[in-house]
Amino acid sequence: MFQAVTQCHPTRRRRVLKSLKAALVGFAVVSGALTVTATPASASASGCTYSGYPVDRCVYVNGASTHVNYVVGTIRYRTGLYLEIEVWGDGFYYRGHGSPGTPSDTTQVQLNLNRDLANGSWVCTAARWVDGAQTSAACVQIRR
Q1: Which domain range does residue 122 map to?
Q2: 53 and 113 in one domain?
Q3: Contact predicate 81/131, CB 8 Å
Q4: In the chain, fewer beta carbons within 10 Å around the N or the C end?
Q5: pTM greater than the 0.70 cutoff
Q6: Are the beta carbons of 65 and 43 closer than 8 angstroms?
């Protein structure tokens, strides 16, 4: 049988209240930590440059605030053109042919970053011609 705290000896009551307070503080700290680590990043942003011919560029950034989970760069162009996709941002760079399995008029790549980027930095996607010339980029700015 439990004894009510108010019916305890004063010294014992202080110890019980102190233990209860410590348990509540501990619970608050643990539940707060679980809340922070269990909350998924849900914000995202995208930007596209539609020029029609010869190539459209899009960039999609998934994350929250300055934390970026992943970036998807996409270029669309007329079938038969030979282009490489270029995706870059704060501390990362990709240039290549993208993911296999995309349609013949599309090149796409997903870069899994799972890290913070600098506040105010840019994430961009562009296309490169065979001669190395770059199209103008589609960009998204990273903001808190």
Answers
A1: 44-141
A2: yes
A3: no
A4: N
A5: no
A6: yes
